[in-house]
Automatic annotation (TrEMBL):
UniProtKB keywords: Metal-binding
PANTHER family: OS04G0344100 PROTEIN-RELATED, TERPENE SYNTHASE METAL-BINDING DOMAIN-CONTAINING PROTEIN
A Pfam family assignment: Terpene_synth_C
Terpene synthase N-terminal domain mapped to chain residues: 33-179
Origin superkingdom: Eukaryota
Cofactors demanded by this protein: Mn(2+); Mg(2+)
Keyword Heme assigned: no
Name this polypeptide is given: Uncharacterized protein
Lineage of the organism: Eukaryota, Viridiplantae, Streptophyta, Embryophyta, Tracheophyta
CDD domains, alphabetized: Terpene_cyclase_plant_C1
UniProt-listed GO biological process terms: diterpenoid biosynthetic process
Residue stretches making up the Terpene synthase metal-binding domain: 243-471
SUPFAM superfamilies documented for this protein: Terpenoid cyclases/Protein prenyltransferases (SSF48239), Terpenoid synthases (SSF48576)
Length: 530
């Protein structure tokens, strides 16, 4: 860890030099001027694409609802294709009615294993009861198709369903190692990324249905990408206006990566306010994390935490200049977002936002104190604080009201998604943070336990915790998915947060040190039409 010499305001008319640590973070990979120059209005070609898009939606809807020519198995495969290429959101009501009808009439017994596994995934994903019996009480043939279907279905397990763990182990033994080791399961993959990858794969010509669906999906992807790019330009202009990007000598500048995550958590066009506040809050959090982890002194971070608790611009007067910039950006961003929710939905969420920022700062402060005192918490103590420092609660508390779910998600959903966030982040960042001498991680906490034989066992333990937390998250999400649309949307946002975290930390810390794969994903999702 290098040091930065900073000129700090002293108590008199002089300036005092202070040496501070610096983590030597990579600068931003993106040209902000180029991003900000993106067109702000639609071209004539895009307007025509919108017209074609509407016609294609109606054609696919007719295919989906054509009882005369579509068997249950074929309809399930069509729904799966719509999900895989990212356009199922246009047919939410139709898909739910079809699945409810299949479940109500007990048609699952007529399906082969591949179709039954697909139905199992779809039912659980929509909050419709689905027993593991529908997978296991039928003839099993060791075909590649059946094994893939069983493997993917196993990731929808609830706590205690060990039979699905056994089914997954059986599938893993027979599937190609590359499929299991290099790809995330579909249920753990951000749907927007899965759509992009599905559409860019070389595909055979396919039947009429497939051709129509893919034509819709390509048009939809490019239109949504164009919208996201215009939004990114606005968020980037905001970021430049805050002045925080000028503090790159000690903090990460990752506004584009944060918008990428926001576009994967809330990709649908109507969730524009949600994406905006997610991207802005995310960029602020990354910066704030570096202040507490690396740069700020104990006295400064305590003063900042107290100022956040007061939530008054006058409280920031005594803060160092670099913290005043941070404080102003947080205060203005959350206040503006809260005003928008109040204006559009009639809910005053500012007290929730203020509390979320204060809780995050207190949790950051706890980690900083552990680090300063050389204290190693137990794994349970660490995670009780760590699900908050993951920043998931703050992100979701800002995102849900902006998405129209002002009543929020059940707290347990937020906690579970945030725990997955924390554990995945630790797995990717443990080595680099240990080398820098940062605060402990879940892996370090495991390694300090008497039962742990080393880093390998600690990592295996954390992976087991991630799998178990996903089972609990599956059950919670399924239990609310059949409720009102706002609650179901809240569950989807929590799931998508956990999913994009898996993607960005799959082969390293995609935020702190963006890998080639991470940069490629960002470029393809936001800048390269299909």
């Amino acid at each position: 860890m290098a040091t930065v010499v900073v000129l700090c305001s002293g108590g008199g008319d002089y300036q005092q030099q202070r040496r501070r640590p610096s983590a030597n973070y990579e600068p931003s990979s993106w040209d902000y001027d180029s991003i900000c120059s993106s067109p702000t209005t639609q071209t004539q070609q895009q307007q025509q694409a919108h017209h074609d898009h509407h016609l294609l939606i109606n054609r696919v809807r007719r295919l989906l609802l054509d009882d005369a020519t579509t068997s249950s198995s074929r309809r399930l495969r069509l729904i799966h294709e719509l999900q895989s290429v990212g356009v199922a959101y246009h047919f939410r009501e139709e898909i739910r009615d079809i699945l409810a009808s299949i479940h109500h009439h007990g048609l699952s017994g007529d399906l082969d294993l591949h179709s039954a596994a697909l139905l199992f995934r779809l039912l659980r994903g929509h909050g419709i009861p689905a027993s593991t019996d529908m997978l296991l009480l039928r003839p099993f043939f060791f075909s590649s198709t059946n094994l893939h279907a069983l493997y993917e279905a196993s990731y929808l397990a609830f706590p205690g369903e060990t039979v699905l763990d056994e089914a997954r182990a059986l599938a893993v033994q027979s599937l190609p190692a590359a499929y299991v080791q290099q790809q995330l399961p579909l249920h753990w993959t951000a749907p927007r990324l899965q759509a992009m990858w599905s559409l860019t794969k070389q595909q055979q010509a396919g039947d009429y249905e497939t051709q129509i669906v893919r034509e819709l999906a390509r048009t939809d992807f490019n239109l949504v990408q164009s919208l996201h790019r215009r939004e990114l330009a606005e968020v980037t202009r905001w970021w430049k206006h805050t002045g925080l990007q000028l503090q790159g000598e000690f903090a990460r500048d990752r506004v584009v990566e944060c918008f990428f995550c926001a576009a994967c958590i809330a990709p649908e066009p109507e969730l524009v306010d949600c994406r905006e506040v997610l991207a802005k809050a995310g960029a602020l959090i990354v910066h704030l994390d570096d202040i507490y982890d690396v740069y700020g002194t104990p006295e400064e971070v305590q003063a900042f935490t107290d100022a956040i608790a007061a939530w008054d611009c006058a409280s920031s007067v005594e803060l160092p200049e670099y913290m005043k910039v941070m404080y102003k950006a947080i205060w203005e961003t959350s206040t503006t977002a809260a005003d928008r929710v109040l204006r559009k939905q009639g809910y005053n969420v500012l007290p929730l936002y203020k509390k979320a920022w204060h809780e995050l700062c207190k949790a950051f402060l706890t980690e900083a104190r552990w680090h300063r005192q050389g204290y190693m918490p137990s794994l349970g103590e660490y995670l009780a604080n760590g699900w908050v420092t993951s920043t998931g609660p703050l992100l979701l508390l800002h995102a849900l009201p902006a998405a129209g779910a002002a009543t929020g998600a059940p707290p347990r959903l937020v906690e579970l998604a945030s725990t997955i966030f924390r554990l995945c982040n630790d797995g990717a960042s443990h080595q680099a943070e240990s080398a820098r001498g940062d605060a402990p991680s879940s892996i370090a906490c495991c390694m300090a336990e008497a039962w742990c034989a080393g880093e390998g066992q600690a990592r295996a333990t954390v992976q087991g915790l991630i799998a178990d937390t996903w089972k609990a998250l599956n059950k919670e999400a399924s239990s609310v998915a059949a409720q009102s649309m706002p609650v179901a949307m809240a569950a989807d946002l929590c799931l998508n947060l956990a999913r994009i975290i898996h993607c960005i930390y799959q082969d390293g810390d995609g935020i702190t040190s963006p890998t080639h794969r991470m940069k490629h994903m960002v470029k393809d999702l936001l800048f390269n039409p299909i």
